Amino acid sequence: MERNGREYALWSIAIAVVLIFALIPVLWLISISLKPPEAITDGRFIPSEVSFDNYKSLFEGGIDGSPFIKPLINSILIALTTTVISIVLASFAAYAIARLEFPGKRLILAGALAIAMFPPISTIGPLFDMWRALGIYDTYPGLIIPYLTFSLPLAIYALTAFFREIPWELEQAAQVDGATPFQAFTKVIVPLAAPGMFTAAILVFIFAWNDFLFAISLTSSDASRTVPAALAFFTGESSFTEPTGSIAAAAVVVTVPIIVFVLFFQRRIVSGLTAGAVKG
Amino acid sequence: MSEITLEGVTKVFADGSEAVKDMNLEIGDGEFMILVGPSGCGKSTALRMIAGLEDISSGEVKIGGDVVNDRAPKERDIAMVFQNYALYPHMTVRENMGFALKLAGVDKAEIDKKVEEAAKTLDLEQHLDRRPANLSGGQRQRVAMGRAIVRDPQAFLMDEPLSNLDAKLRVQMRTEVARLQSRLETTTVYVTHDQTEAMTLGDRVAVMRAGALQQVGTPAELYEQPVNLFVAGFIGSPAMNFMPAEVSGGRVNLPIGEADIPEGVGSGRDGKAVAGLRPESFEDAEMVGDLRDERGVVFEAEIDLVESLGSDLYAYFHVESGGVESDQLADLVEERLEETGVPEVREGQEQIVARLDPASKIKRGDTAKLWADTSKLHLFDAESGDRLRREGEGDRTGGERSEDGE
Question: Fewer Cβ within 10 Å of end Cβ, chain A: N or C?
């Protein structure tokens, strides 16, 4: 009992340390975003005066005047499109890899892994030239394509593991019940692999949402610039003011969708969904 | 009409192994056909070929007269019950049972009606809105059956549907399956490794070994006229006792004595043979009365073990002999070892099980007088293991439907 108590205490301390370590910067960011410009450098953790001016400045001037609204829309559309395409393609690929024996299966998996490990920075130069030649520089597809390239291997890997765990008999039962292979996939396999698909979706979304490298290199205007890149172009209220407060406010705003996304999908990540399918 | 016909059906896997060899089988409309055999004999593969879950390497499968080789499972109008049930875990019992009808585009009211009918038959009404995870093993099994019967298909295919249940429930479900099938009169192919299930359920039973059909017949035919050592040893529990025999001039010399070859049993040519006697062909010599003078042999044996079940008394003893060697029996020994852990055939001596009258006073360690009814003797060729044939008797190996039924 005593030992349990001690263990409990130790665990609590460890968790507290990790939480503080992870959350202090976030709290600091929120704190800065709430300070008026003149108080930003006062070094106080809790703002002496709370002001929403930084947030207001982000959205002032509507879609044309604000430096933030258009990039936010770009970010949302690009990240969501990447996630949807990536998950659909990855689930087909992963299903084939998990269920079929075909020549070159190992090669595909190894290739996917190699691509995932490839340093993105080395593709920037060629992509910049190619995208300009193709006319997709500074467009949505110009960002979505490289995001897909790097997120697909990740998604395929995660989903293959999930599909492998689903008993094969379930699909056969569905086929005997009169389902086409595609129906068996969408009505039986996908619902059961849903936790895996949501996990993969979260990973892909965060990857696309957070990317700075491609966003800064392959865009040149608000036509397709995403928030991480747009932050770099923030200016203060006058050219002599540091934009620290606005950047902090923008950073807080872009964190919100991630949190919402994770919380929303976390509810669906119910483990043990396949329990009761087969005995043994 | 929904007969199922297999013509020369063969399955060769990618690694070259032959799971099913040239299988010919006719399953009549409404018939309950059992495929039985030890594990790995190809019975499940054969069933999966009928279902369309496994490609057919060569030969033809016909359902209701149409060749279905190239049809997908959904086009064959069959329902299958899987060994592990394969229920859809994300659906309720109702949805599980109605899934096939929903896919077929049947309207909702009709689905509900059929599902409720089936649920009533299977006593699942209170569980319709639960998910498989919240059901007991027996209930899951019934849902799997229900999923098959709501469809009213041309045939039911069942792959060891009861093997995941505990012993008591299995017996209970066995009678339920039998009742259901005889009421629905739907052609059924049922795969099992359990010979008791095979004998109690089937209209006819097809025994398989190593991918090849050994014998097809009614349970009684298999029991009384097994075509070879394998069928003889596989069907019946406890298993038939085997001992080496010497045939000469219409008489047979056994380790337990000499006897006339009974009428109706072929003797082949003189020489070595294998004799088989079922446990119930033995009796305590004291209990037989006048019969012992009429037929059979009386011999003495030291009793190794007595098991009294109340209704029966099993006495185990052994006879010294050169042993019976046969690949067919070797397969069985392995199978029995897996099931019971007791090897039935040992080297140098033959373990014999006798089923005696429960009133018998025989005890363990006794040297008892036993009587063997040799009119029930089976004789098999020592080399091939085939049943010895009477002169003029046609060749009747497995595959064909036996018409003579002698």
Answer: N
